[in-house]
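Quick bug: LHFPL tetraspan subfamily member 3 partner-like output formatted oddly.
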Amino acid sequence: MSMSPALSDLSHLYQTEFVRSARAVGVLWAVCTLCLAIIQVVVLVQPSWVGTTDPRHQGAHSGTMGLFEVCVESDWPVPDCRGGLSSLSPLPSFQSVAVLVGVSLWTVWTSVLCLCLFRFCSAATVYKICGWLQLTAGFCLALACLLFPDSWDGPEMRSLCGDSVSSFSPGSCSVHWAFILAILGVLDAAILATLAFVLANRQDALLPPDTKEVTTGLLMSV
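Here's what came back:
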């Protein structure tokens, strides 16, 4: 049964507007995904997860600490840093946290590379793959943020923040911007994963019924 010309024009207009809106939202989602990947790199390499707030505290030094590096202020303009990502060896107290952040970083960048699949696979499939990858990345990063305060009772934290430091108690230190950025990364990953699943479902749900029938007939004929 053929469609009337008016219904056919309305269906074509509906599809055109849907494709434009989906592309605009998809581009924004892809850009935010790339931003999340960059945020993950910054979170991993920056030695600014915690830092001293009261350097006059007994036994404490003024400086900051990350997952791989401890930087203490010295007489030179540049802080005296120990460790680094180049050694691929995180601080002993934060090994589990560094592994979780590394897994999160890997999954996010994998989702970025999966954007190339739009040329070879259906958009719904790519969105679902990226959504699961981003959901995994957010879960790993959230777990790292939860384990990080529990790892404060270590020699590295004691040397920087004083003897009063313990699990969930940073002593003379406080959380710095890299840890806060990691928490924001968790929220970003959750939002992007949700948006990816929504876009995947809307790819088929918003198509007109006649278009679905035609698509199904073509697939069956093949």
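Actually, after a second look the formatting is fine. The chain has six helices and five strands. Closing.
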